[in-house]
Amino acid sequence: MSAESQPIADVFEGSVVKVRGVLRYGNSSLVAPLSGALCAACHVEVRDRGSSSWWYGMHSWSTPWSTLFEQTRGEDFLIEPADGGAGVLAAASSLALVDHGFRLVEEIGVWRAPSPRASEILRLAGVVEDGALWRRPISICERRISEGDAVAVLGVARWRPLTRDVGPGEPDYRTAARELCLEGDPLLVGSDPELRG
């Protein structure tokens, strides 16, 4: 079911709905660990090709990447529906970024030492920075969604008491001071309306 196909006020508690619109920050935002940019949610993945991918300093591109560490963090954010209706709250306690978000990659290897931000991510990942480490390639990938991004969000509809001020000019679909919140385990956030991975 899509919230675009019916008035938001008619969405049933517990139904699975998809809302498309523009992301707005809620009460707070995050600082993305690699770029340092403000965002509503970010995903960081540290990948390694292993020391076996090197032979006398020559790198083998055929060696597959393996994931050493990944982490997704998010703060609750608002979705302004594409039709200009009232904002919908997205609960970010558990979310997955699907084919979406600004992507930043930092490659580390023999000739590339990690940036200070990358070093902190490696510390969180439990990767020890010693001389042997930089003989194999490490890749850190960051994806994030920020205010103004066009998003599609798929989750379970929950009605909760209104806990925020209604924005200037924001249409009010709420009855008895309630607002629609999307939750999920995980909540799917993407650019594709079908939210395909």
What proportion of the residues is helical, as a percent range?
A: under 10%
Largest sheet report:
5 strands, mixed, barrel
Give the N-terminus to C-terminus distance in angstroms.
19 Å
- Multimer state: single chain
* Rg measurement, Å: 20 Å
Number of helices: 1
Beta-strand share of residues = 35-45%
- Mean of all residue-level pLDDT scores: 79
Secondary structure: number of strands:
14
Helices and strands, in N-to-C order?
EEEEEEEEEEEHEEE
Structural class: mainly beta
Count structural domains: 1
The main sheet orders its strands as 1-8-9-14-13
Extract low-pLDDT stretches. 53-57
Tell me, briefly, the overall form. Answer: elongated
Explain what the structure shows.
This protein has 197 residues and is mainly β. It has one domain. 5% of the residues lie in helices and 44% in strands. It has 1 helix and 14 strands. The protein has one helix at residues 116-124, and strands at 16-25, 30-31, 38-39, 41-48, 54-55, 58-59, 66-74, 77-81, 88-90, 95-98, 102-108, 138-145, 150-161, 178-190. A hairpin with a 6-residue loop joins strand 2 and strand 3 (38-39). The longest helix is centred in the middle third of the chain and has 9 residues, at 116-124. The radius of gyration is 20 Å and the shape is elongated. The protein starts with 15 loop residues before the first strand and ends in a 7-residue tail after the last strand.
